[in-house]
Design a protein that fits this description.
alpha+beta; Phenylalanyl-tRNA Synthetase, Chain B, domain 3; 4-stranded mixed sheet; 4-stranded antiparallel sheet; globular
């Protein structure tokens, strides 16, 4: 159902959840803000590049041809806001779980409404003229960039996802994705994926349908 271009030195943890109940509950958001406070207490006086875990997400960006010193991975962007005591935002209960786990694992994480995705899904480089409207309401051009695409074309990336596949209060089935460099410890990635799923099910109910690493 999911495949990855073998030339890309990356791996994914992919989770499928069903029968979800997504709300505006703030439990995951509170956990994320508590974690942000903990990061400030431990790491406020050291360079962000020296914080354990940051280099993994930077390695992932380098593997997909992006310079992490010019555009931060989403996990590092969250960490940077946490360290500077900038405001964090709540979206909905499932997206908040994703942001909490991204800050915890310091790896880019995305969540998608599975009902808006047509399998199969491929992880590849974007082609000429491929683009979508991102969550920032801007057109995201994908030529030569790493993206996730279904039978209708690209719908996501570790930089900015599309509005089309965004999770809302009406979402009942979701794909959760953790992005990591190929050299990342696969057993640790599997453990993190299991914790991600556990947290999501605790807060959004539902059932775990699938948890895989790609490539396996």
């Amino acid at each position: 159902m999911w495949s990855i271009d073998p030339d890309l030195a990356v791996q994914l943890a992919v989770i499928r959840l069903e029968q979800l109940t997504i709300t505006n509950d703030k439990k995951a958001f509170i956990e994320m803000t508590d974690l942000a406070r903990s990061y400030r207490a431990r790491f406020a006086e050291i360079p962000i590049s020296d914080i354990p875990g940051v280099q993994a997400s930077r390695s992932f960006f380098r593997a997909i041809g992006l310079d992490p010193t010019k555009r931060r991975p989403s996990s590092e962007a969250l960490l940077n806001r946490a360290l500077k005591d900038k405001e964090l935002y709540s979206v909905n209960s499932l997206v908040d779980v994703g942001n909490w786990c991204s800050l915890d694992f310091l790896l880019p994480i995305c969540v998608y409404d599975a009902g808006k995705i047509d399998s199969p899904v491929s992880i590849r480089l974007g082609q000429a003229d491929e683009s979508y409207i991102g969550l920032n309401d801007q057109e995201i051009h994908l030529e030569g960039r790493y993206c996730l695409a279904d039978s209708r074309g690209p719908f996501g990336s570790p930089v900015t996802d599309s509005i089309h596949t965004s999770v809302t209060l009406q979402t009942r089935e979701a794909w959760l994705v953790i992005f990591a460099p190929r050299a990342f410890d696969s057993e640790l990635l599997r453990q993190q994926a299991a914790l991600f799923a556990e947290r999501a099910l605790e807060i959004c109910s539902g059932q775990l349908r699938l948890l895989n690493l790609i490539p396996s």
